[in-house]
Amino acid sequence: MKKKCKEIQNKIIDMHYGEIDENIEIISHIENCNDCNRFKEKLELALDYMKILNTQVDTSALEIDITKIIEKAYQTENKRKEKFELLIFIAASIVFLISSILFITNLDIRIYFYLQIFLYLNLPLILIPFYKLKTPRR
Ligand SMILES: [Zn+2]
């Protein structure tokens, strides 16, 4: 490699980093010298490749956002499940209330009280295993 070329190639690097302005001497040398022209193209390719690598670093930052989004979606789904369970509870309460009223108005009130006592005594026996089955999932 000619000494002049080495000098020009150093100036090409400086030019890329904006340390020196483009000047006619360098540009005319690049246009007339194959080695320096190829060097300039390789440098531009390398810089472009580095830009692509930098873009990929940005996508890793995006992946963190994706995990956050998934987490948020999961939380929203849990909230929706809780709402659904609350809705079932409200619906069951209404059904129980209506059936209670129907019991009182249509049947002997004693039967209702017997049923109430029966439910209060037996409901924990039904609900506790149900509750224990549900908790490990949460
Ligand atoms: Zn040259």
Automatic annotation (TrEMBL):
Sorted alphabetically, the keyword list is:
Membrane, Transmembrane, Transmembrane helix
TM stretches of this protein: 86-105, 111-131
Does the record's keyword annotation contain Membrane?
yes
Identify the domain of life. Bacteria
Q: What is this protein called?
A: Zinc-finger domain-containing protein
Organism field: Caldanaerobacter subterraneus subsp. tengcongensis (strain DSM 15242 / JCM 11007 / NBRC 100824 / MB4)
